Amino acid sequence: KFLVGAVEYDVDALCDGKEVYIAGIMEHIEAAGVHSGDSTALMPPVQLSAENKVEVENIVTRIALKLGVVGLVNVQLAIQDGVVYIIEVNPRASRTVPYVSKATGVPVAQIATRLMLGESLKDISPKNNMIAGMSFVKSPVFPWKRFPGADIVLGPEMRSTGEVMGIGRNFGEAYAKGLIGSGMTLPMSGGVFLSIRDEDKHRAAPIAKRLSGMGFHLVATGGTHRVLTEAGVESEFVYKVKEGRPDIVDSIKNGKIQLMLNTPMGKKSALDERAMRLAGLRYDVPCITTIEAADALIDALVSLRAGDLSVVNIQELQL
Fold first, then answer.
1. For the chain, what is the radius of gyration of the CA atoms?
2. Which of 32, 27, 26 is nearest to 13 (CA)?
3. Do residues 274 and 151 touch, judged by C-beta distance below 8 A?
4. N or C: which end of the chain has fewer CB within 10 A?
5. Are 180 and 161 in contact (CB under 8 A)?
């Protein structure tokens, strides 16, 4: 069954058939259900409890040894209400290996090759050199503009064609760098459109309050506008497509919207939402389609406004 509200994790590990070395545990910003290749991943994890961390490492170790892996193994897990679930196991290198290697200073692929050629982890003794206090974010790169008419909603089918890495002294800085590197234009001011599905509406007001406090003008469709009003957050009502004019697509065309936060509401609203997202794509308005990413985006905007985006030399980090 689908794990509602679960946090997904990617683990890359090395195994020589007798011992296991956990190379990296990555925490997905998007909830479980979005393809791991399309998810934004964070190292080190921020929501993973010490107890669950030990359990995850134990699970990965047992699986790798039981499978007789010699080299690399990637395990995807989800944690819901403190319970760890295994999604899938891949006894091979993962696309996250370069990211883990750069974040930890451990040449993961090189060590995996040496293990496959007969060396042992005991002989190699890899050491994690990740700097305490630093954050590392892997952001996917999407080809939306190359495919006119393609919808940008994320799901179990992988859509990304690449990825970039952001490094920062805090999560906000790292995430902002990752988003900018992936081609997203982050607004410093202007209008933010919110259309949040019912399952996420309980998280809409806190996000809207932070945006309003930063001086953004909020625009929302009926249900979201009502939730924000009840929470004491001021927003401008706007029509959905075919509800009346001017509608949200008109607002995007007229330059009133600089950022969209739209979590898909299902088949009933599919046409309306698709038209809105395609308009955003056409007029270069960034659109966030998961509530978790919307929450994280605000941290990025805070760092961007504070001028925290200084250059980090990755070679110096690993000395």
1. 21
2. 26
3. yes
4. N
5. no
Half-sphere exposure of 78 (CA within 13 A, CB side): 17
Closest by CA position to 124, among listed 236, 18, 257: 18
- Bridge-based pairing of strands 191-195 and 162-168 is unpaired
Distance between CA atoms of 211 and 223, rounded to whole angstroms?
18
- CA-to-CA distance for 77 and 69, rounded, in angstroms? 18
Alpha helices in 1-93 (DSSP H): 50-67
Residue type at 36? S
Residues 159, 188: Cα–Cα separation, whole Å: 28
Provide the edge-to-edge strand list for the sheet that holds 70-80. 83-90, 70-80, 7-16, 20-31, 41-43, 135-141, 162-168
Find out whether 16 and 62 touch, Cβ atoms under 8 Å: no
Name the DSSP class of 32: B
CB burial of residue 151 (10 Å; 0-12, 13-18, 19+): middle
Tens digits of per-residue pLDDT, 110-129?
A: 999 999 999 999 999 998 88
Q: Where are the beta strands (DSSP E) in 150-301?
A: 162-168, 191-195, 217-220, 236-237, 259-262, 287-288
- Report whether pLDDT(57) > 90: yes
Task: With H, G, I as helix, E, B as strand and everything else as coil, classify residue 7.
Answer: strand
Question: What global pTM score does this model have?
Answer: 0.80
Task: Name, in order, each residue with C-beta under 8 angstroms of 315's C-beta and a sequence gap of 6 or more.
Answer: none
